[in-house]
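Sample intake sheet
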Amino acid sequence: MLFLSSIKGSIKTLEIRGVMHGYINKIVYCLDTLQIKGLIKPPNKFVSVVKCKSEILEKCKKLGIKLRSENIKMTSVTYESVLNEALEASSCDINILEVMFIKDELNTLMLLSDKSWAPLKATIASIVAKLVHPDWDTRKHQTQIGGNFSLRSIDNSHISRTLFQKGLYDTATSFALTRSFEKAEPFDKSYTGKITPVACKDAFLKVVEVINTIATTEVLKAMLIVVMQFLKERKTKHIELKETVLKSSKDLTLEDVSDTLQKINKLSGRGLSVVPVIIVHTLVTIIQPYLWPSMTVKPLKEHTAPDGHTESYGDIEGFNTLYKPVMAIEIKDKIKVDDTIITTFNKKTVNLDIPLKYILTTANISKYNSKNNVSVQTVLDFIITYLQLTLYHNPSICTFFVSELQKCLLAHTNLSLSNKEAVNTILISLLA
């Protein structure tokens, strides 16, 4: 920080803040009449400039302003240091966001983050990058469209990874993993990427415009602090939710499980399609030691690419001791299984001699077997059938299943807080 003040105790004071890589990018001043042409606008305004110390001193000297300069300690600004400063801040002046007319837009991005993480992640990446590189218009997020850097690379290497390690992001993936943010176009009002929900697209494009046009360092820092506080509060809520896990002493039945799963299936909203996958994976994991002791159930993967782009045989996979696939389960949510779905599944499994193959759905269908010994049935039928088979080995398997399901659902990173709360309410009503 550099302080320039007139000599002999004059009340006129010029304070210069925000030294980045040897350059001053912000001036905050309390001079009622003093205006340095090219550097300062009328009083009580925050002014963005990119002028080095010597130029400012020289301009003041030419205008006859006698100034005293105190030493500046040049510190290297990094993405991590910008994030840590915002995380350590206890509060900020929210009114400054209202002045910029972006408070509502920022709230929209935060409130809808459970439905779509990418717009909020892109906003955070843009703010942090702008604070580190004030000359860069971060709307030009790719070098091939004139950007100084790749915003995706910065987010992936420094921001998303850091915030994930701190437990503030559910995953370490960058915003640009979402295809709607990959277009080689600036993030301006004409951006054609299909960012959803629509409210998020409108809010993001307005906020990123403010970031790169009129936002000062103080505004950028205030925005970042507000978002970090939101993420910290969200993390606390997740922790509190995990503490609701119950050890039930009830002797649950197949009917209890069936009724509960039907209630969960009636929930609606974005992001719930992962729930039946978690349900089936939990079941297979707990019954495997009883029914298939030589099989290993692969941990549930977090989808970051379609199955067609990976070496996946299904949503849930089991392997024998030689790591040969012996189980493949494909799961659809509220979609009736048709020939296209079966054909796609067969292409992935037909030449592998997998004995246990299933296509399950939460839609209402009748059980049948297709070609290549693929069993097509509902998720509920599958769950109840295998719980009943396991009752022979463990009479308390239904209670154990529901208890484990609660733990798995609350621990899953790709399930939003609101969806976790909705499902958890149903499970607690059964377990309590």
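Comment: The CA atoms of residues 242 and 410 lie 6 Å apart. The first helix runs from residue 53 to 62.
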